[in-house]
Design a protein that fits this description.
This protein is mostly beta strands. The chain folds into two domains: about 130 residues, Immunoglobulin-like (Sandwich); about 80 residues, Immunoglobulin-like (Sandwich). About 5% of the residues lie in helices and about 55% in strands. Strands 3-2-5-6-11-12 form a six-stranded mixed sheet. A hairpin with a 3-residue loop joins strand 11 and strand 12. It is elongated and about 70 Å long.
């Protein structure tokens, strides 16, 4: 336990801790096939909600590390975390990431799961987090080809899940996705590449306006079902 205190005190002042109280998080991590994932890094953080930027792991209000751990061969762990006082607003439990400024997974085969809890969670009690499914990482490549034989313009939006799944405990998932907007490039091809997760769905929405003023609008769902998914759109 001395190591935990040393790590934490290097970031947090003693006034920011709740009488050195502890919070124990019960965690189990599995993959999409319901198999346990061992040696997954676990971390708990304290930060201030007032400057938290949602949907990305850029914690401008980051205050310090409260606890560290990893899963055993059964994908299970009890993460012991120091308890911050309520002025710090939130506790974050990160699974497969120990970077407070990055959403990059430590084990790049999988994404990142983040749980957010109010700092007034009951201390000295076991907090049982939901069974956590780490989805495998994937890459989505969308090639957009503007045919020189067809006159017209393209506007599109691509919505895809990021590699970070965010949960507000105990309410549930706050789905984390990103949207990229773009336009067609005359007589050129363009490839958009995105880091995403397997067993999810990307959405490609587009509007084509022909030279005569005719408008075509459609939505295409792209299943992300393997390591690399390639989709070609020609207009």
């Amino acid at each position: 336990m001395g190591t935990l205190l040393l790590v934490c005190c290097s970031f947090l002042s003693c006034n920011e801790l709740e009488n050195n109280s502890r919070i124990a998080f019960d965690i189990k991590v599995i993959d999409d096939a319901n198999q346990p994932i061992p040696d997954v890094d676990l971390n708990s953080y304290a930060f201030r909600e007032s400057v938290f930027i949602p949907f990305i792991l850029l914690f401008e209000g980051f205050e310090g590390i409260l606890g560290v751990g990893s899963t055993d061969n059964q994908g299970e762990a009890t993460l012991i975390s120091l308890a911050p006082n309520q002025e710090l607003n939130l506790i974050g439990v990160l699974i497969n990431s120990n970077e407070q400024f990055e959403g990059t997974p430590i084990n790049e085969e999988y994404g990142v799961v983040m749980y957010l809890l109010d700092s007034n969670v009951d201390v000295n009690e076991l907090v049982i987090l939901p069974e956590t499914v780490l989805k495998r990482s994937a890459t989505l490549e969308i090639e957009i080809i503007d045919s020189p034989d067809v006159e017209g313009s393209l506007e599109y939006a691509i919505t895809f899940p990021t590699r970070i799944q965010q949960f507000q405990f105990p309410e549930g998932e706050s789905f984390t996705s990103d949207i990229v907007d773009g336009v067609g490039i005359p007589s050129m091809s363009k490839t958009e590449t995105f880091d995403t997760l397997q067993n999810t769905m990307a959405v490609f929405e587009y509007t084509i306006t022909s030279s005569s003023g005719e408008v075509e609008t459609n939505t295409i769902e792209i299943p992300i079902n393997q390591d690399v998914v390639q989709y070609v759109f020609e207009f």
